[in-house]
Amino acid sequence: MKKNNTTKPSTQFVMVTPELQVVNQEVQKAYQKIIEAAQRLLTKFEMVKYRTYITVDNLRDPQNTNFINEFICHFWSINLINGRDGRYYIYINYDGDFIEKFGSNLTNLLLREAYRATNSEDGTIGCEYALKVMFVNHDVHNYFFRLTFEGETDTVSIAVVERPEAA
After folding, report:
1. CA–CA distance, 165 with 118 (Å, rounded to integer)
2. Three-class SS string for the chain?
3. Nearest Cα residue to 124 out of 22, 14, 16
4. pLDDT by residue, tens only, the chain of 167 residues
5. Nearest to 68 by CA among 40, 46, 94, 87
6. Which residues lie below 8 Å from residue 39, measured CB to CB, with a gap of 6+?
7. How many Å is the maximal CA-CA distance in the chain?
8. pTM here?
9. CA–CA distance from 29 to each of 126, 127, 128, 158 (Å)?
């Protein structure tokens, strides 16, 4: 006797409630604070190549359904992602080779800022759930080099953080 192995069709659509929209806006604000912190941290470097970063606006790419924004530099990839449940998430990936070369202090400072940005100050759940630090070594710098080599596009921008003037 043949067994019927049909699966129920499921939709990829998620009901976005007003409450979910508010929380997703908070996650977006936290993401922006983390990116600003990352840019401030890059000012510590004299060499332009270490102050260079790439942003990817995936909302301009109709083929992309999960990634919203990406920030990529030599050290980290920080991604704002739309999860299957309709909630936004912030993923931070680090490059172990650069931690080995420069030490972990820079990444520790970034993570402190990331936890501060997603922390709930008023005792509510807030968007603490959204921060996902990937504690595995990623090859961030090769992704950075590939995007740099391919150059700017409709979705990819390349910029350099300026160093503050010495007083």
Report:
1. 31
2. CCCCCCCCCCCCCCCCCHHHHHHHHHHHHHHHHHHHHHHHHHCCCCCHHHHEEEEEEHHHCCCCCCEEEEEECCCEEEEEEECCCCCEEEEEEECHHHHHHHCCHHHHHHHHHHHHHHCCCCCCCCCHHHEEEEEEECCHHHHHHHHHHHCCCCCEEEEECCCCCCC
3. 22
4. 555 555 544 446 667 788 888 889 999 999 999 999 999 999 999 999 999 999 999 988 877 778 999 999 999 999 999 998 889 999 999 988 888 888 889 999 999 999 999 987 766 666 888 999 987 778 898 999 999 999 999 999 999 999 887 64
5. 87
6. 53, 161
7. 84
8. 0.86
9. 12, 10, 12, 22
Our CA dihedral for 80, 130, 43, 143, rounded to 10 degrees, sits at -40
Task: Give the pair of three-digit tokens for residue 107.
Answer: 């990444």
Residue 51 to residue 164: CA distance in whole angstroms: 12
**Contact of 44 with 105, CB cutoff 8 Å:** no
What lies within 8 Å, CB to CB, of 74 at 6+ separation is 49, 50, 52, 95, 98, 140, 141, 144
